[in-house]
Amino acid sequence: MSDQPPPEPGEFRAKPGSARRSPQEKKRLSYDRDCRNCYGENDKSSRKAIRFHKRRVNKTNRHHDRQALQRSTGPRQPDTEDLTEQRLHARKRKKWQKGADAPLGGYVNVKLRRRRGESRYDDSTWNQRVWEYRS
Asked: Which whole number is the average pLDDT over 27-37?
């Protein structure tokens, strides 16, 4: 234990060996570390959708396994066991993974640009993209 008295309410004490950070440095670190879901959906619905997608994929995998095992019912034979195992491992198991979120700093920059009416691209790139799209 330390020989210092406990901090007073509202008093901040840095851990021994760690440097205190300025508010500006904290904000910069927050922009680098924090992320935003910018997939285009409602962020609240994403919380439910992630669970739903994981459930659906696992259910599909269980269904496939159950079908493969049901085909091998009946008297036990060595060739049926091998065939069942082949059926179980024949199909690659489905997997779902959430897409990565965007760093908060980039997300804020895009929002600020949009607010100012700026394009994501400079004019030459934008014109080239529009031309490619139309042709």
From this structure: 87
Amino acid letter, residue 117? G
Q: What are phi and psi of 88, to 5 degrees?
A: -65, -40
Burial class of residue 64 in the structure, from the number of CB atoms within 10 Å of its CB (0-12 exposed, 13-18 middle, 19+ buried): middle
Domains of the chain: which residue ranges? 39-94, 101-134
Q: How far apart are CA 54 and CA 69, in angstroms?
A: 23
**Total-model pTM:** 0.53
Q: How many CA atoms are closer than 13 Å to the CA of 92, on its beta-carbon side?
A: 3
Distances in whole angstroms, Cα of residue 25 to Cα of each of 11, 21, 36 = 20, 6, 20
Residues 6+ apart with CB under 8 A from 57: 94, 95, 96
CA–CA gap between residue 117 and residue 59 (Å, rounded): 46
